[in-house]
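User: Quick sanity check before I run a bigger batch. Here is a single chain. Can you write out its predicted 3D structure?
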Amino acid sequence: MSLLNPAAAHANDLPAPLFAFSGKAARLDLSAMIAGALLAIGISRVGPAAIANDFQAGGLGLYIIATSYAAFLLSVLLLQRAMKLSMSATTFGQPQTFTTSGVFKFTRNPIYLSFFMPLAALSYFSLETAIASIVIYVTAMNLTVIRKEERELQSAFGQDYTNYRNSVPRWFA
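Assistant: Done. Predicted structure follows.
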């Protein structure tokens, strides 16, 4: 089976994550840690002083970052509701349901796409920082969290998941 062939029939045919927590550490949300670290690095790269100066001058930068973060949180809650998960649900353990309706018709990872909002907000201060943060985020997610989840979904849902993977893009069209 070629790694370029997305129609793998077995979970073991899918690439393994380059990194994953194990044991009790596996309860940590690696996706949130990756996005949070990149947002913090991005903010430190553009400079807290630049954000403070912009705010004092009546700029919108701080509001844009705060609003994008709030929109991110709201989108995660709404997506969890669409997936029929409780507000305290996590992605840990074996998948119990397979959601393909709503926004899941267009992307296999809408929650991870919502992490783009705070990272993209960095573009108010530095387009280069925002682009670099998003590229690093997508790369890190593809190599770690998404690989692990895809293997779990393939194992749990077999051909149904294969068909879904073949018809819906990982990120967006």
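The mean pLDDT is 85.

User: Great, the batch can go ahead then.
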